[in-house]
Write a structure and sequence with these properties.
Number of helices: 9
Largest sheet: none
Radius of gyration: 20 Å
Number of strands: 0
Order of helices and strands: HHHHHHHHH
Shape: elongated
Helix content: over 70%
Distance between the termini: 39 Å
Length: about 200
């Protein structure tokens, strides 16, 4: 379930971050300033602390709600990336021409901005995925995430550590899976960044 939770969390984070970033870039100076200051305020609060506080208050959440919580606390970096990339795209000739012709904002976003934002969002998504995996595993290890009998890399390690089972591979293989998945996501993000920078 770790992969499914991380994937849903990334989709939530990318969706919220893209919406905030695009609205900030298109909304003018006041809207931009308000949204970016709110984003800065949320970035100032440690994400792990927020997750621990919410989950400790509400108790263990269903997997879907747990994924939504992880996504809802991880959109801020994507919002900044989306805002900066949107501002760059708005300065290009074809976007300036489209705005001058009076293209409605929804169509401008759908037909012109989102295709240009896609490579940035894919790269941001892979990095967010790499961050979501250890978050989910850590909270599940502490008993605040996915609950048995649903399988998660974190609660599998907890089962081995708590004496429910006494098999070393119940610790080693989930740990290797977490490290391998995070490393793979970072390598994909790096490859995407390299491809974008290629002539």
């Amino acid at each position: 379930m770790s992969l499914g939770i991380a994937t849903l969390a990334v989709l939530v984070a990318i969706s919220i971050g893209t919406l905030v970033g695009v609205v900030a870039a298109l909304g003018g100076r006041v809207v931009d300033a308000v949204l970016m200051r709110c984003t800065d305020a949320m970035l100032a609060v440690p994400r792990v602390l927020t997750l621990l506080l919410v989950v400790a208050t509400t108790g263990p959440l269903p997997p879907a709600a747990f994924a939504l919580l992880i996504g809802a606390t991880g959109w801020m970096s994507t919002a900044r990336l989306a805002r900066n990339e949107t501002l760059r795209l708005l300065a290009t000739e074809h976007l300036r021409a489209a705005r001058a012709l009076g293209v409605p904002a929804p169509r401008l976003v759908r037909r012109h901005l989102l295709p240009g934002l896609l490579p940035t969002l894919v790269a941001a998504g892979t990095v967010a995925f790499a961050a979501a995996i250890p978050l989910e595993a850590g909270l599940s290890f502490l008993g605040l995430g996915v609950q048995p009998p649903d399988p998660s890399w974190g609660n599998i390690i907890t089962a081995a550590e708590s004496g429910i089972v006494r098999h070393w591979w119940m610790v080693v293989f989930p740990t290797v899976a977490i490290v391998g998945t995070v490393l793979s996501a970072h390598l994909v993000a790096e490859r995407i960044g390299t491809a974008r920078g290629a002539p």
